[in-house]
Amino acid sequence: MLDTATRLMQAGAIPSVSEVAEAAEVSRATAYRYFPSQAALVQAVVDEALGPILSWRSRSTDAERRLASLLDTGMPRIEKFEATFKAALKLSLEQWAQRHAGTLGEEPAFARGHRKELLADALAPLEDRLEPQAFARLKQSLSLLFGVEALVVLKDIWGLDGDETLAVAQWASRALVRSAVVESTSGRGGQAGKRAQSARRIG
Fold first, then answer.
1. Contact between 79 and 151 (Cβ < 8 Å)
2. CB 45 within 8 A of CB 84
């Protein structure tokens, strides 16, 4: 069933559990036993498509290198299953519209968020160097560069190919990390200077 669902999503569809059951030639009862909702079905397909991304690890202690490694692992895989991830994104947007219109009913929400944990892992060496708010902002900013949304912008709008898309993501990610570090260093230096001036005035 998972193979059938993957094939359908790679063709651009967002299949229901019943449609997958029919295509896989299994009973609906069996299908719903494994996938109780469309959200559960799509989540299983997405996790399968993510594959090596979910098991990504780096031994480097340098945040830039760790982030580059994550993008090198993740972006080509996301491009390989681009249709699947775009179908999942479409489901997420449809559910958002239904939820705001009050028509989603009891259908479970399709959960997204693997990138949050992956980016936190990649940036781990910076966690003690940046203020919590700055660290969170850096993760949030980088999440714009890591995922199918980056392909939507860079491939569909700008017409870049996969290698060019990865190159832009790598360049932008380095710029964001370096900017966050510089801001943190400047901020601490400025605060130290203010404390020194205050001490001199008191003295």
1. yes
2. yes
DSSP label at residue 113: -
65 phi, psi to nearest 5 deg: -70, -40
For residue 32, give the CATH number of its domain: 1.10.357.10
Q: Whole-structure pTM over 0.90, yes or no? A: no
Q: What is the pLDDT of residues 38-82, one digit of tens each?
A: 999 999 999 999 999 999 999 999 999 999 999 999 999 999 999
Retrieve residue 24's tokens. 């896989």
Count of residues for the chain?
203
Cα gap 39→182, rounded to integer Å: 42
Query: Residue 198: left if φ>0, alpha if ψ -120 to 50, beta else—which one?
Result: alpha
For 195, the domain range is 2-202
What is the tally of structural domains in the chain? 1
List the alpha helices (DSSP H) in the chain: 2-10, 17-24, 28-34, 38-50, 63-80, 82-101, 114-122, 132-142, 148-151, 162-202
| Residues 116-143 pLDDT 10s | 999 999 999 999 999 999 999 999 999 9
